[in-house]
Specification:
Number of strands: 22
Helix content: 25-40%
Strand order of the largest sheet: 6-7-8-9-20-16-15-12-13
Strand content: 15-25%
Low-confidence stretches: 1-6, 43-66
Mean pLDDT: 82
Radius of gyration: 33 Å
Structural class: alpha+beta
Shape: elongated
Largest sheet: 9 strands, antiparallel
Length: 597
């Protein structure tokens, strides 16, 4: 097949992969919906069954928030590095996390209550009135009593030690039964907060996730999108056998609530989204056709079973910070699994490590992307050189292939056989020219995922680029954004194609399609992150330089027939596995006469 055919095959493979991905997503959504309906049916049956009061089990009733006395709010702040955790007695949790430095963002600002609020329903509110009973520079303690006589004590402490981080805070929740009856409940939920996009264009990255016994999975905003053939989903509910952590996430930042007990325990997880009263972008104010949402989540505590006077303590860690693979892997507890890089995750992890290493050497993330690109291209140099030589030799075969096409134009099958015979005679591998294209597909998508979610690039500048995580718009022309890097990418792609040898067998239609590829890629990548356009432009320039160097120092290939190895005559060699001792085969002949016969 020629280059055009391989491009079409490649696009078909990509489309098949995308189709398979969405089939898996729909299957997961169907399973989640089925689990939710089963839980609703079970709850309905429980509600219809008449309750029998007993001394050991309380009557199951729908939690109703009692009328809380009006008490003044008590606040306290814990600061670790560039992160400030703002705690409040209303809900006894983290009202906001203010990230300074290069982040300059406030997390949980669109939440209905603080992170760490203890709910009796996943979508409810923490109705307990808390008091700030102890505070210091490194910790704060809140205490309150529920209507059922359960004293709840929450202690927030800044992390210390090997796996500590400025974005990580410990939470110890103690429940003590001060009543006279046994208290048992599976309906305690810890609020993980609310995530909302930093700008409207990033809303598609919002979602929620969980880790069940090491199997991490997630849904993004399209989970709540209006489906074509099913009901609109308003929430996600599911029970897990070993829920290790759960949370909400955006494009660059995430909330991860992790249970730190030695043994896993069954727990429930809930998530939903709310429409925000005000748009995220000020420019969208007053536009009713644009909606922004906040994504809430709650994860259940293990079953609470307390005798009178007994108490139990559950320990958690709350991470409120950027989605950086290096940072999340250092704090352990499988939190790096929350970097959902997709199909090419190993490649993304490796490239992320290389990019961070080059940044440590240069001190600039733009230079790190350029060095990362050069590193990848150097690794592919031998393969690229081999494919270029193959394509040149295929170009020399052009006249002979045209002769075959004319000779066997009425017999396509014979024509194909003769072409393959021609390849064999001259030792040309028709797949050699397309091999680098296949190798670059996983690298491109792996790097795309890295640059798409790299919080390290947010707000980082390089030359005229103000933010490597966004498009490098420098001005507008007639209402159209002018992005220099994608334009450079398109121009260098055209120059690269001019220098790339093309098979003479390619007809005019194929040549036109081939020349439209730069426009196609320019259209797709025009609004991508500047770091991605920088990578693509750098690799095009590198490829042009590589082609120029090879023209200077590598001799042009010659079209010569390959000497075919003669077929050996005589009997085939013996298989040592069937004749391990080297015994000679016995010659067949007349058998000797038997005695007496």
């Amino acid at each position: 097949m020629d280059r055009k055919s391989w491009i079409i095959v490649t696009l078909c493979v990509i489309l098949m992969g995308v189709n398979w991905h969405y089939m898996q997503e729909n299957q997961k959504a169907a399973q989640a919906e089925a689990a939710r309906k089963q839980q609703e049916e079970a709850a309905k049956k429980t509600a219809e069954t008449p309750a029998v009061p007993s001394a050991t089990a309380p009557v199951a009733t729908t939690p109703v928030a009692p009328v809380a006395p009006v008490v003044p709010e008590e606040t306290h702040s814990l600061t670790a590095g560039s992160v400030t955790f703002e705690l409040t007695s209303k809900g006894g949790g983290i009202a906001r996390a203010v990230l300074a430095g290069t982040d300059r963002v406030t997390l949980n600002k669109n939440a209905v209550e603080p992170i760490g609020a203890l709910r009796r329903e996943p979508a409810g509110l923490d109705a307990i009135v808390y008091k700030l009973t102890a505070k210091s520079e490194k910790s704060a303690t809140f205490e309150g009593t529920s209507a059922e006589g359960i004293v709840v004590t929450k202690t927030y402490t800044l992390t210390e030690g090997k796996e500590s981080d400025e974005h990580l805070i410990d939470l110890a929740i103690t429940l003590k039964n001060t009543g006279a009856a046994q208290h048992r409940s599976e309906e305690y939920y810890l609020y993980a907060g609310a995530s909302s996009a930093l700008k409207h264009d990033d809303a598609r990255y919002e979602g929620f996730f969980w880790n069940d016994a090491g199997d991490a999975d997630y849904y993004q905003s399209d989970f709540f999108a209006k489906p074509w053939f099913s009901e609109l989903k308003t929430e996600f509910r599911q029970s897990f056998e070993a829920l290790r952590y759960a949370g909400v996430m955006g494009r660059f930042y995430t909330h991860i609530v992790t249970r730190t007990a030695e043994k896993d325990a069954p727990a429930k997880f809930w998530s939903s989204r709310r429409k925000l009263a005000q748009p995220i972008d000020a420019a969208h104010a007053g536009k009713t056709d644009i909606e922004d949402h906040a994504y809430d989540a709650s994860l259940g505590l293990p079953t609470i079973d307390l005798a009178p006077g007994a108490s139990v303590t559950e320990n958690y860690q709350i991470y409120l910070g950027p989605k950086e693979y290096d940072r999340l892997s250092k704090i352990g507890k499988q939190r790096s699994f929350a970097m959902f890089y997709g199909w090419f995750k190993p490649i993304s992890i490796f490239l992320s490590w290389v990019m961070r290493w080059t940044h440590d050497m240069t001190g600039n993330w733009g230079a790190a992307v350029i060095l990362l690109t050069i590193f990848v291209r150097l690794c592919l140099w031998p393969i690229h050189a081999k494919s270029t030589g193959t394509m040149k030799r295929m170009g020399l075969l052009g006249p002979l292939m045209k002769e075959l096409q004319e000779k066997y134009k009425d017999n396509p099958q014979q024509q194909q056989m003769e072409v393959m015979k021609l390849y064999k005679e001259y030792g040309v591998n028709p797949l050699g020219g397309c091999l680098p294209l296949f190798l670059q597909i996983p690298i491109f998508f792996g790097l795309y995922r890295v640059l798409e979610y790299a919080a390290e690039l947010r707000g980082q500048s390089w030359l005229w680029v103000q933010d490597l995580s966004a498009a490098d718009t420098v001005t507008q022309f007639m209402g159209f954004d002018v992005n220099p890097l994608p334009l450079i990418m398109g121009l260098t792609m055209v120059a690269q194609m001019k220098l790339t040898p093309q098979p003479q067998s390619m007809d005019k239609m194929q040549q036109r399609i081939f020349m439209l590829m730069p426009i196609f890629f320019l259209f797709i990548c025009y609004t991508f992150a500047a770091a991605l356009a920088l990578y693509w432009s750098t690799q095009n320039i590198f490829s042009i330089a590589q082609t120029w160097i090879m023209k200077l120092y590598v001799p042009e290939p010659k079209l010569e027939k390959v000497t075919q190895k003669p077929v050996p005559k005589g009997p085939p060699p013996q298989n040592p596995f069937f004749n391990p001792m080297g015994h000679k085969e016995k010659k067949k002949g007349p058998k000797p006469p038997r005695l007496g016969g």
